[in-house]
Amino acid sequence: MNLASPYRFDHRGRTAERDLERYVRDLIEAVLFTAPGERVMRPDFGSGVAQLVFAPNSPELAGATQMLVQGALNQFLGDWITVRDIRVEASDAVLSVKVAYSVIGSDQVQIADFVRGGGP
Length: 120
Known about the structure:
- The protein has one domain (20-117): Nuclear Transport Factor 2, Chain: A (Roll).
- 28% of the residues lie in helices and 24% in strands.
- The chain contains 2 helices and 3 strands, in the order H-H-E-E-E.
- Helix 1 crosses helix 2.
- The longest helix has 19 residues, at 59-77.
């Protein structure tokens, strides 16, 4: 069973579920935008990439961010996905991360875009 994230109830009053594709995408988003130390019982969980939104842009930062994302996804979701490619762009106060991946046991490549920042 793949639980919906955030946790909620469906129209029947039962725990809401997700299809595998959406569930894995939710897992990737959780890894990307959770800061290490944010989860009480898993202080090492997350990548902390959202904290880089306001860092000065440079090719070095982009490369380091890609490695940070790759490492976090492999560490926490290595049993779920194979990461094919990662693209990170920071523009003003907006951080965009594009992850190309396939679910373990499948050769079908999925692409997920995540955007954070931008202000109110």
